[in-house]
Amino acid sequence: MFVTNAFALSTIIEKHKHKFYNKDGISMGKGSRARHEREEAEALLNPGTNKKPHLVRNIILTVIGVLLAALVLFGVLYSTGTIQRYMTAMQVGDQKINTIEYSYYYSQIRQNYLNQYGSYLSQMGMDTTNIDSQKYSDKLTFGEMFRKQTESQLSDTYALYSEAMKKNYKMSDDAQAKLKTTLGNLKTSAEEQKTTELALLRSVVSAPITVKDYNAILTRAALASDYYNSEIAKDSYTDEELKSYYNENTDQFDSVDYRLFQVFFESSDDKDATAKNKE
């Protein structure tokens, strides 16, 4: 009988133990027990109340974490040019041209133009560091003009390259030697400027181009040029035929497009005349 009562008593104590002790096993006072009982009662009446805020917070934190990870991944892929290699800037036939190659051609055309006309444009008061958005003509900005030339050059290059590939054309030894020299010049220039080939490339091309991209672009252009010179230009007119045609059509060739700028200034004679009139 005593054993049975003792067992029943221990069972009751164990069942209600949490009402008198906290989670660390320390005895709670009357106030703590009352607060604990209220919390239990609220939990029983509203079983989802305490869990919902934690669930929402966890979902929000998870979404934020995923977005941050996606942004970091996008930044890495963009800075290395991975994304741009799969972005099509234009298409010639069935050949897709990515933004890196397009940017390379654009940068070269832009730089060649500035090398030729930059000092002249500066004398006219034009800011050549921000030339792309400035007016080239009534209808075009310089940037639009550069893009037109870029697309024209890429169209010609890829048309010739595609034709050469279809005919299994092999680049001549002379063209291969010139290409090797051109590719080697990048390393030489980088060493002279005490920088890396990659850093030098990215200083002149407004895209995350790599040395591998550069080699592929120049190889494609060299093959197209060599194919044109070997297979197409050989069937062109002779110098005598071209000279004869020119002499017969001089009106079509002896012309030039020009832009006229009117500049006003005061000469020394004008100053003397103004001074005499005042007297």
Low-confidence stretches: 1-9, 12-22, 76-81
Number of DSSP helices?
Answer: 11
Mean pLDDT over the residues: 75
Number of strands: 2
Strands side by side in the biggest sheet: 1-2
Description:
A hairpin with a 2-residue loop joins strand 1 and strand 2. The relative contact order is 0.06. The chain has helices at 2-15, 30-45, 51-79, 99-123, 142-166, 173-192, 197-204, 211-232, 239-248, 250-253, 268-278; strands at residues 88-92, 95-98. The chain has a two-stranded antiparallel sheet with strand order 1-2. Helix 4 crosses helix 5, helix 6 (173-192) crosses helix 7 and helix 6 (173-192) runs antiparallel to helix 8. The termini are far apart. The longest helix is centred in the N-terminal third of the chain and has 29 residues, at 51-79. It is mainly α and 279 residues long. 66% of the residues lie in helices and 3% in strands. It contains eleven helices and two strands.
